[in-house]
Design goal:
Largest sheet: 9 strands, mixed
Number of strands: 9
CATH architecture: 2-Layer Sandwich
Mean pLDDT: 92
Number of helices: 5
CATH topology: Beta Polymerase, domain 2
Structural class: alpha+beta
Radius of gyration: 16 Å
Number of domains: 1
């Protein structure tokens, strides 16, 4: 395991402990969510992506700033990017709209799948976290170009292949 992965895992452990003690629920998103589902580190990660409830935004910001995380970018409503130990930690926020759909404020056109945010925990290297569902991670990757206007990268195709394999495990095996 390289230095970057060790630092990111240490930060994930710290975030799980800090937010857990504060009773703030969050979910892993992106590459680390995929790794927690797979039960192994599948690739190098440029950042840590998390999702939390919009109503916890101020509380999370205060808690992380008090613990050495520096705000590097404040999204209008939908996100905050922090930095610690040379790593980018992105927090996207969700809320429930009037029709009981899970949305990201400011991006209401992107409705999250019903199963995206469960209470199920996954463990990797002794760290226990909730992670977005495999189906929602795959849907996000498949919709990325349409919603962002940016083309998929090679690593996105590799991730989609792995996510599909996790959705359709060999007979007798359980999906994460």
């Amino acid at each position: 395991m390289d230095r970057n992965a060790r630092v990111q895992l240490a930060l994930l452990r710290e975030l799980a402990q800090l937010l857990g003690r504060a009773r703030v629920r969050f979910w892993l998103r992106g590459g680390w969510a995929l790794d927690f589902h797979a039960g192994r580190i599948t690739s190098d990660h440029g950042d840590i992506d998390l999702v939390a409830r919009f109503g916890q935004r101020s509380r999370i910001r205060k808690l992380l700033e008090e613990n050495g995380y520096r705000v590097v970018q404040l999204g209008e409503l939908a996100s905050i990017h922090f930095s610690k130990r040379g790593q980018d930690i992105g927090l996207a926020f969700i809320r429930t709209d009037q029709m009981a759909r899970t949305i990201t404020p400011g991006r209401e056109f992107w409705i999250w799948p019903d199963d995206a945010f469960s209470n199920r925990r996954h463990t990797l290297h002794g760290i226990s976290c909730r992670a977005m569902s495999i189906a929602s991670l795959l849907e996000e990757k498949e919709s990325y170009e349409r919603y962002s206007g940016r083309p998929l990268r090679e690593k996105d195709f590799v991730s989609m292949k792995l996510l599909r394999s996790l959705l359709s495990p060999p007979k007798g095996a359980r999906a994460g």
